[in-house]
Write a structure and sequence with these properties.
Blueprint lengths: L8 H14 L6 H16 L6 H32 L5 H6 L9
Helix pairs in contact: 1-2, 1-3, 2-3
Length: 102
């Protein structure tokens, strides 16, 4: 990862935008990385030209990451509680099939 202290503000904004876009391609954890990595640049540091756009990307990254986490935790919880009730469908969704069942 590049050192943010050595990057120009325009390059930081470009990298922040790239991380935001990558989050849409099945890598939503990138939204959390994006938010925490650029937080000081966007919210603590004195104002600079690209700061408003960077804040927008970071806020949407955090919202997207939280929504993704809610969906993921909900799915895992439902699957753990209902897998047995789903019968063969639940077994086929499992990565580990119990012994004796093919």
């Amino acid at each position: 990862m590049p050192n943010l202290d050595r990057m120009k503000d325009a390059d930081k904004l470009d990298l922040c935008r790239k991380y935001f876009i990558i989050g849409f391609f099945a890598l939503p954890f990138m939204w959390f990385i994006n938010f925490f990595w650029f937080f000081k640049e966007a919210f603590v540091r004195p104002a600079f030209d690209q700061q408003k756009q960077m804040k927008k990307y970071l806020i949407w990254s955090l919202i997207g990451g939280i929504l993704w986490m809610i969906v993921f935790v909900t799915w895992v919880t439902i699957f753990q509680l209902k897998r047995v009730e789903w019968g063969q469908t639940g077994d086929r969704l499992s990565l580990i099939i119990p012994l004796g069942i093919l």
